[in-house]
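Have a think about this chain, tokens included, and walk me through the fold.
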Amino acid sequence: MEELLGSDYYMVHFNRQPGVADTVLDENPSQFLRNLFRKNVPPELSLDVLNLAKAKAPLGEPIMSDSELAVFVSSFKATGFTSSINWYRNLDRNWYILADANPIIKQPALMIYGDRDVIPKFERLSEFVPNVDEVNLDCGHWIQQEMPEETNQAIMKWLEQQATA
């Protein structure tokens, strides 16, 4: 992953320096989450996790109200960030454990993409999910928070289509 994404990429950093990101994020949960849950942030700055935790002034625009953000902050203050970071630390092990699993998802599925997400669309999705329907919304990574009404409409429309299919 380091060869592909570079040594400063957040997933690589989590594995190369265990405990460092956990500590920084745990010390700054309000600041980090306020800086993370934003839209219209330059892509090269949106994945720099440690700098997001340390930055005094957020970039871009908030995607939720202060009271909505407070729910996330309260949860992470209570639990810390280690368990969330451990999901990334366990990627290689998960790939190994699932090596013999059939990667094809046959159930109907809906994939909603944000057109301005820094994470690119998976161009081969239909090879692995042959019954997928894709919807694109004009937003970034935090689709549900950026466009809640449109997200709900897309899901409801898709569910209605599934019910009549």
